[in-house]
């Protein structure tokens, strides 16, 4: 039986992110999480859109390869990667609190771009579909004290760009142009369109 003949194949999320797990759960499909150990290093001269698509694909492939012999039923592996870019520079996850303070000070009162790549791979030997979305985020002007209080909450330390729009970081954001879920880390409208390649139609 192929994926195309199934209405609700299992979605295997190649991520340990609770945010992405929560988002994919909104689709109402059978879902399991299987963190990827893929290498996330990339050349310094790659543009953001290439980076997120490449890393999303690496994560999905790594999990596909790990589970190829164990996954008896048809499934779709989903990899995703998110980065923040400002002034042509990519901001990943902060190394520590000082790095987070530096990132937020740089983003304060300005507009930056958030890129999220999504890759879907059919198991065991299905097609690969990969794409990305970009959302522009305008952050309000923050005082040094506000930035330090936010960083002290601990929320920024595992977030690209040093903030989480779905949590306390929502009070830092003035406006967005584009898909909100791209900023959270998994653009659901893009994922839904990709799943159509596997015969899955949502809603």
Q: Determine the fraction of residues in helical runs and give it as a percent range.
A: 25-40%
| Helix/strand/pairing category | alpha/beta
Q: Indicate the low-confidence ranges by residue numbers.
A: 1-6
Q: Categorize the overall geometry.
A: elongated
Cα Rg? 17 Å
Q: State the end-to-end CA separation.
A: 23 Å
Counting H and I runs of at least 4 residues, what is the number of helices?
6
Enter the CATH topology name: Maf protein
Number of domains: 1
Mean of the pLDDT scores? 91
CATH-scheme architecture: Alpha-Beta Complex
The SSE string, one letter per element, is EHEHEEHEEHEHH
The CATH top-level class label: Alpha Beta
- Main sheet makeup: 7 strands, mixed
Number of strands: 7
Strand content: 25-35%
What are its keywords?
203 residues; alpha/beta; Maf protein; seven-stranded mixed sheet; elongated; disordered N terminus
Short description:
This protein is of the alpha/beta class and 203 residues long.
Can you give a write-up of this model?
The protein has helices at 18-25, 48-67, 97-107, 144-152, 180-184, 188-195, and strands spanning 10-13, 31-33, 75-86, 89-91, 111-123, 128-139, 173-177. The chain has 203 residues and is of the alpha/beta class. The chain has one domain (3-197): Maf protein, CATH 3.90.950. Strands 1, 2, 3, 4, 5, 6 and 7 form a seven-stranded mixed sheet that branches. Strand 5 (111-123) and strand 6 form a beta hairpin. It is elongated. The two termini are 23 Å apart. 40% of the residues are buried. Residues 1-6 have low confidence and may be disordered.
């Amino acid at each position: 039986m192929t994926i195309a003949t199934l209405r609700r194949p299992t979605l295997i999320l190649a991520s340990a992110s609770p945010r992405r797990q929560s988002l994919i759960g909104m689709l109402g499909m059978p879902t399991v999480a299987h963190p990827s150990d893929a290498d996330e290093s990339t050349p310094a001269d790659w543009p953001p859109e290439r980076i997120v698509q490449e890393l999303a694909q690496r994560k999905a492939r790594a999990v596909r390869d790990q589970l190829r012999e164990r996954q008896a039923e048809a499934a779709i592996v989903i990899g995703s990667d998110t980065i923040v870019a400002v002034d042509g520079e990519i901001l990943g996850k902060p190394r520590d609190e000082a790095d987070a303070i530096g990132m937020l000070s740089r983003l304060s009162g300005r507009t930056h771009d958030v890129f999220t790549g999504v890759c879907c791979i059919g198991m065991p030997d299905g097609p690969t579909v990969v794409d990305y979305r970009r959302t522009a985020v305008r952050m309000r002007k923050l005082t040094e004290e506000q930035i330090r209080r936010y960083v002290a909450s601990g929320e920024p330390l595992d977030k690209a760009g040093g903030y989480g729009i779905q949590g306390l970081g929502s009070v830092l954001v003035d406006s967005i142009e584009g898909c909100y879920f791209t900023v959270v880390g998994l653009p659901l409208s893009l994922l839904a369109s990709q799943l159509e390649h596997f015969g899955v139609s949502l809603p």
